[in-house]
């Protein structure tokens, strides 16, 4: 499953990387650039791997048919969603599966990208506070083993243990 599609760039990259019979449920409550990326996904021969759901993630996590249904979930939505959704997303990934949260070191004062730090108090704490809350939630969740990878603007890997 992939949450936050926007340009379709990560969606296409993931579709290209999985086996031919692999499936991705893509979730985004906005249409994003669907008209731009859908023809590219078709041209790349990846359309058969992808399903589209235009709901907010909260509606998807409530649906019991998705519980334990996914090997891998990639999350690139607003960081308030990451902190609010982690406890339900973990039910959707199977034991031994992985959730990847992208852009997890990001602090953003609406235009200025920087790494979250304790000195981040000035300006709009648009991303900083949600990221710090998210870190606390995943670090204290006994169901997951986590690893923060300093690539790009930060990725947190969560392996579901139980
Ligand atoms: C940073 S963009 C994703 C970029 C994407 N990874 C790419 O390759 O272009 C974040 C996306 O998350 C979507 N989004 C944010 N909160 C959401 C929510 N609660 N439910 C569903 N989609 C959400 C937004 O509509 C937006 O398209």
TrEMBL record:
<keyword id="KW-0489">Methyltransferase</keyword>
<dbReference type="InterPro" id="IPR029063">
    <property type="entry name" value="SAM-dependent_MTases_sf"/>
</dbReference>
<protein>
    <submittedName>
        <fullName>Caffeoyl- O-methyltransferase</fullName>
    </submittedName>
</protein>
<dbReference type="GO" id="GO:0008757">
    <property type="term" value="F:S-adenosylmethionine-dependent methyltransferase activity"/>
</dbReference>
<dbReference type="Pfam" id="PF01596">
    <property type="entry name" value="Methyltransf_3"/>
</dbReference>
<dbReference type="GO" id="GO:0009809">
    <property type="term" value="P:lignin biosynthetic process"/>
</dbReference>
<keyword id="KW-0949">S-adenosyl-L-methionine</keyword>
<keyword id="KW-0808">Transferase</keyword>
<keyword id="KW-0438">Lignin biosynthesis</keyword>
<dbReference type="InterPro" id="IPR050362">
    <property type="entry name" value="Cation-dep_OMT"/>
</dbReference>
<comment type="similarity">
    <text>Belongs to the class I-like SAM-binding methyltransferase superfamily. Cation-dependent O-methyltransferase family.</text>
</comment>
<dbReference type="GO" id="GO:0032259">
    <property type="term" value="P:methylation"/>
</dbReference>
<dbReference type="GO" id="GO:0008171">
    <property type="term" value="F:O-methyltransferase activity"/>
</dbReference>
<dbReference type="InterPro" id="IPR002935">
    <property type="entry name" value="SAM_O-MeTrfase"/>
</dbReference>
């Amino acid at each position: 499953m992939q949450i936050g599609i926007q340009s379709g760039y990560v969606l296409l990259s993931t579709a290209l990387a999985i086996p031919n019979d692999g499936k991705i449920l893509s979730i985004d409550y906005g249409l994003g650039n669907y008209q731009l990326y859908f023809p590219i996904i078709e041209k790349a021969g990846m359309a058969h791997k992808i399903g589209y759901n235009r709901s907010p993630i909260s509606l998807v996590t409530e649906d019991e048919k998705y519980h334990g249904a996914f090997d891998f979930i990639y999350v690139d939505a607003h960081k308030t969603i990451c902190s609010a959704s982690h406890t339900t997303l973990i039910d959707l990934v199977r034991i031994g599966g992985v959730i990847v949260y992208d852009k997890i070191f990001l602090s953003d004062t609406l235009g200025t990208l920087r790494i979250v730090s304790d000195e981040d108090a000035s300006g709009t704490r648009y991303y900083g506070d949600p990221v710090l809350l998210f870190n606390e939630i995943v670090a204290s969740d006994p169901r997951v083993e986590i690893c923060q990878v300093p690539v790009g603007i930060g990725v947190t890997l969560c392996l579901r243990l139980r």
